[in-house]
């Protein structure tokens, strides 16, 4: 059943009227008011132009109504008919519960619409009302819709003007992200008002030449079409333009950040010789892989460049990132400068310190460890030595970011597991030296499109090869029936001289609850499951000395099983551990499970990852299946992106950039490549965006990013 084409004066005009200057707050749009203005403010919308940039999350085609006889379970449909019956029920039980059912009929049949706990709906409808409803069709004692969007088009015996102005029916209709108390129809009407009164005042920030070269629609046209498109072709053209803007702005911000780094001159020259390379490599008890050699070439080229290094090193768990980082730091030390490594946990910092100390045994390199729980006297002595240049290589936790930590001449700064540090923390670390070379490490592989977006201001290297001796890990899903068999695997491995990790989940955002879970599990395993084995405990609330002892006992083989929270997720290296058991694995993210699995398979023995899980169906099941099917970190990341979607996967807060309005743009690799090329070329041509043609872009970037990318310093 076709709807008549919308002819309401509220439809967006094809040619916008004259722009208003100085647009008022969004609450002054017709029909909004203070109350709805506050609700829109909760969504970050304070002006009409911001409302125009509040994009729909999807659209529904409501140009035609479906006859009731043609309704299909699982689909979304628009139905037009008459109200045949209204039924109100009070549901017995605790608290007031009710159900309103409305039977709607057309010439082909009838169906029910139902509303739970909305008793006012009983008085909203009269028998004989002509209504239009849109919602998902489900089958439960016949076909029905639950809480459909509804409009009463005609009421018998009343000269009734339809309440709807044409924004919700008879067209392709936008569906917006909402907040509690705000309805779709209210947002649509506000958007129409903003389009009518403020669209003409929107400046297009992209230069005309770029628009023409990339075949992009003008911004005002795209904003109108993203909300109320005439057809799906117009919608797709608008989406392409607005996705390009998202990606282009991010890449322009990255290009400006990079411009600042490239402008920094090194002020000194490294001595880089084949003999220095040989001397450093002799410190490692293994030959570098081809991938590590390739990354070392990248590092040496950075050291020879006239500006400081700013490089991201991506590598799967166990790919040898730490060895490459030590190589970079030793280049600085050999050139009489200092180096420092920032680690996210004390356990990882201590592990790096011990590993570096073994590698540098017999050398003249002076190495120090700075942690949060150091005795005051030791800390003062270490900081004094660092300021005097008497420490060559400092391994540290967040404690290095404190104001009293200083270096005589910091040459190379390494951030391990960089995604665990915010942009401000990384900036503070960088400012500990005068233009130090920066190397960021991450064992969380991310797809290329995300890497270019989140780290577009960095040079990137990838370690895509496992060192010799790294064995693939067998992964097994364990349900309740399989627990006894899983425990037998642990017992057999421990009897053979190997060891096992048991990891407990963070059940809630409560460290106390997490702590009790770990302690309770360690007692259960020690007393009821493995009374003949020694069980240790490790969690983040333990004192530093207790954590060191727990790890030392496990590394030395004095405990067979270590029960832990996710404090062991990154970097912990115990080659003799051949079993990892993750309890309630369905509660973890896919990348986190992959990181945990990387704690084993580091020694000469076959290793097994046991995922104790009750995933049921949906996302949890897909995460578990992905772990069972592959151990490739980049494939895991791709699956994680598919499962969670780019909006959740891609958090820009760590980069200091705002969230994306259209996160799905990250899935469009060709568009990202085009946006990156155009943005970097434009900033290279006009580094300060000062030409008249580029000033609108400069203003847009300042509005979007503020002082976070350095434009205000120009």
Describe the structure.
The protein is an alpha/beta fold and 714 residues long. It has four domains: 1-60 and 172-200, DNA polymerase, domain 1 (Orthogonal Bundle), CATH 1.10.150; 65-169, OB fold (Dihydrolipoamide Acetyltransferase, E2P); 274-306 and 320-442, P-loop containing nucleotide triphosphate hydrolases (Rossmann fold), CATH 3.40.50.300; 473-630, P-loop containing nucleotide triphosphate hydrolases (Rossmann fold, 3-Layer(aba) Sandwich), CATH 3.40.50. It is built from 23 helices and 21 strands. The strands form four sheets. A seven-stranded parallel beta sheet has the order 11-12-10-13-14-9-15, with helices on both faces. It has a six-stranded parallel beta sheet with strand order 16-21-20-17-19-18, with helices on both faces. Strands 2-3-4-6-5 form a five-stranded mixed barrel. The chain starts with 32 loop residues before the first helix and ends in a 9-residue tail after the last helix. 41% of the residues are buried.
Strand arrangement, largest sheet?
11-12-10-13-14-9-15
- Biggest sheet character: 7 strands, parallel
Looking at CATH, which topology of the largest domain would you report? Rossmann fold
Uncertain regions spanning at least 5 consecutive residues: 7-20
> What number of domains?
4
The secondary-structure class comes to alpha/beta
Radius of gyration: 31 Å
- Which percent range fits the helix content? 25-40%
CATH superfamily of the largest domain: P-loop containing nucleotide triphosphate hydrolases
Q: What is the CATH C-level name of the largest domain? A: Alpha Beta
Mean pLDDT: 85
Strands, count: 21
- Count helical runs: 23
- What is the second-level CATH architecture of the largest domain? 3-Layer(aba) Sandwich
The outline comes out as globular
Q: What is the beta-strand fraction?
A: 15-25%
Distance from first to last alpha carbon: 60 Å
């Amino acid at each position: 059943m076709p709807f008549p084409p919308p002819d309401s004066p509220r439809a967006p005009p094809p040619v916008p009227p004259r722009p208003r200057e100085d647009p008022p707050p969004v609450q002054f749009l017709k029909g909004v008011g203070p109350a709805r203005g506050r609700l829109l403010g909760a969504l970050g919308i304070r002006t009409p132009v911001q409302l125009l940039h509040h994009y729909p999350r999807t659209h529904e085609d409501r140009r035609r109504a479906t006859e009731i006889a043609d309704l299909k379970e699982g689909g979304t449909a628009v139905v037009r008919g008459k109200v045949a019956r209204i039924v109100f029920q009070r549901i017995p039980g605790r608290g007031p519960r009710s159900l309103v059912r409305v039977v709607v009929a057309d010439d082909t049949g009838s169906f029910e619409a139902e509303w739970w706990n909305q008793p006012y709906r009983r008085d909203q409808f009269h028998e004989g009302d002509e209504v239009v409803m849109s919602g998902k069709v489900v089958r439960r004692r016949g076909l029905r819709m639950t809480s459909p969007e509804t409009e009463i088009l005609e009421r018998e015996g009343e000269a009734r003007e339809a309440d709807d102005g044409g924004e919700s029916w008879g067209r392709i209709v936008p569906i917006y992200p909402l907040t509690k108390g705000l309805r779709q129809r209210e947002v649509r009407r506000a958007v129409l008002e903003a389009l009518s009164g403020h669209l003409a005042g929107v400046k297009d920030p992209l230069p005309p030449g770029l628009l023409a070269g990339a075949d992009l629609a003008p911004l005002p046209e795209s904003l109108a079409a993203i909300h109320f498109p005439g057809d799906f072709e117009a919608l797709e053209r608008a989406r392409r333009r607005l996705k390009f803007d998202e990606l282009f702005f991010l890449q322009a911000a990255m290009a400006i950040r990079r411009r600042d780094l490239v402008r920094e001159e090194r002020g000194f020259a490294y001595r880089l010789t084949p003999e220095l390379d040989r001397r450093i490599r002799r410190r490692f008890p293994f030959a570098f892989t081809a991938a590590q050699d390739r990354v070392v070439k990248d590092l040496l080229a950075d050291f020879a460049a006239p500006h400081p290094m700013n490089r991201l090193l991506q590598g799967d768990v166990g790919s040898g990132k730490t060895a490459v980082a030590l190589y970079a730091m030793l280049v600085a030390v050999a050139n009489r400068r200092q180096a420092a490594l920032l680690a996210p946990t004390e356990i990882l910092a201590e592990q790096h310190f011990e590993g570096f100390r073994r590698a540098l045994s017999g050398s003249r390199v002076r190495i120090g460890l700075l942690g949060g729980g150091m005795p005051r006297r030791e800390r003062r002595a270490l900081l004094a030595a660092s300021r005097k240049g008497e420490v060559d290589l400092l391994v540290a936790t967040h404690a290095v970011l404190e104001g009293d930590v200083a270096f005589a001449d910091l040459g190379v700064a390494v951030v391990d597991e960089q995604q665990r540090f915010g942009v401000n923390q990384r900036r503070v670390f960088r400012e500990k030296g005068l233009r130090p070379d920066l190397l960021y490490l991450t064992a969380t592989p991310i797809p290329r499109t995300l890497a270019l977006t989140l780290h577009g201001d960095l040079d990137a290297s990838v370690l895509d090869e496992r060192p010799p001796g790294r064995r693939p890990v067998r992964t097994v899903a364990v349900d309740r029936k399989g627990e006894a068999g899983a425990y037998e695997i642990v017992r057999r491995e421990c009897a053979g001289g190997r060891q096992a990790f048991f990891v407990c989940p963070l059940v809630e955002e409560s460290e106390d609850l997490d702590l009790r879970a770990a302690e309770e599990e360690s007692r259960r395993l020690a007393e009821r499951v493995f009374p003949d084995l020694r069980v240790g405990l490790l969690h983040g609330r333990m004192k530093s000395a207790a954590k060191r002892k727990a790890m030392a006992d496990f590394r030395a083989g004095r405990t067979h099983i270590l029960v832990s929270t996710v404090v062991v997720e990154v970097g912990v290296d115990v080659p003799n551990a051949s079993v990892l058991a993750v309890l309630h694995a369905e509660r973890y993210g896919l990348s986190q499970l992959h990181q945990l699995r990387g704690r084993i398979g580091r020694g000469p023995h076959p290793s097994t990852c046991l995922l104790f899980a009750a995933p049921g169906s949906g996302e949890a099941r897909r995460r578990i299946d992905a772990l069972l099917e592959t151990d490739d970190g980049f494939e895991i990341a791709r699956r994680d992106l598919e499962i969670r979607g780019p909006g959740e996967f891609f958090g820009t807060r760590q980069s200091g950039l705002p969230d994306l309005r259209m996160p799905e743009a990250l899935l469009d690799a060709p568009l990202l490549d085009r946006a990156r090329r155009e943005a970097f070329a434009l900033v290279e041509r006009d580094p300060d965006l000062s030409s008249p043609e580029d000033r609108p872009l400069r203003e847009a970037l300042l509005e979007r990013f503020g002082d976070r990318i350095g434009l205000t310093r120009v």
